[in-house]
């Protein structure tokens, strides 16, 4: 059944910031005196939500370096560098396909809302979306609550919606909202990890229209 609403994750699903986030992690480790470094494959095995747990898996000691200070340091590097990030493979085509098919589209992101708005506007994508749903701070804590509130206020039937993301947290958010879910392995977690969710996993967003047709 064709969905009436696509709920898009942003980072790693539409915005191709995987390499940048990997680099920022290694730079943060280096700046705070940690010896370990992660290549892209290793990064995709440790990244996840809550972000605090991901930082712990990366090896940060919060008794030495508080999470809030690490997050602020990370964003100081990430934000200006993210201006050069493009879209993930197939992203623009998938957005255009959904728009042409009459499917409503929103972004549900763990990013702070002003940052999300700026990043979407810089890529001339605002016209694709009915709403941008972001967070009130930089700590990526409230995606489930934001999504549930949006569905309640909009009156949209969750069964008619599909969340498209790139992490197991996106699956958890979809489950909490009662929507269907498709995960893309081009982002921040490996295909092997994503497949444990038991929902369709695609390699790039080029595959999304055919995948949605089969749901």
- The percent range for strand residues is 5-15%
State the total count of DSSP E strands: 6
Order of helices and strands: EHHHHHEHEHEHEHEH
Largest sheet: 6 strands, parallel
> How many helix segments?
10
**What proportion of the residues is helical, as a percent range?**
40-55%
Mean pLDDT, to the nearest integer, reads 95
- What class would the helix/strand composition place it in? alpha/beta
- Our Rg estimate from Cα atoms comes to 17 Å
* First-last Cα distance: 6 Å
What would you call the shape? globular
The neighbouring-strand order within the major sheet is 3-2-1-4-5-6
User: Which runs of at least 5 residues are low in confidence (pLDDT < 50)?
Assistant: none
What keyword list fits this structure?
215 residues, alpha/beta, six-stranded parallel β-sheet, 10 helices, 46% helix, 14% strand, globular
């Amino acid at each position: 059944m064709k969905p009436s609403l696509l709920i898009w994750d942003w980072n790693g699903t539409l915005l191709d910031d995987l390499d940048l986030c990997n680099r920022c992690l290694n730079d943060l480790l280096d700046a705070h005196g940690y010896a370990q470094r992660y290549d892209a494959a290793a990064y995709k095995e440790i990244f996840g939500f809550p972000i605090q747990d991901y930082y712990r898996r990366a090896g940060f000691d919060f008794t030495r370096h508080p999470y809030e200070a690490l997050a602020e340091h990370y964003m100081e590097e990430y934000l200006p560098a993210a201006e050069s990030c493009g879209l993930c493979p197939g992203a623009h085509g998938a957005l255009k396909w959904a728009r042409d098919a009459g499917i409503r589209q929103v972004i549900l992101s763990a990013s702070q809302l002003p940052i999300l708005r700026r990043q979407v506007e810089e890529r001339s994508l605002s016209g694709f979306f009915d709403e941008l749903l972001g967070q009130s701070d930089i700590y990526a804590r409230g995606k489930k609550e934001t999504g549930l509130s949006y569905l309640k206020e909009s009156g949209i039937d969750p069964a008619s919606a599909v969340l498209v993301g790139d992490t197991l947290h996106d699956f958890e958010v979809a489950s909490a909202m009662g929507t269907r879910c498709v995960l893309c392995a081009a982002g921040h977690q490996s295909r092997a990890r994503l497949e444990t969710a038991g929902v369709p996993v695609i390699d790039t967003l080029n595959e999304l229209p055919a995948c949605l047709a089969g749901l």
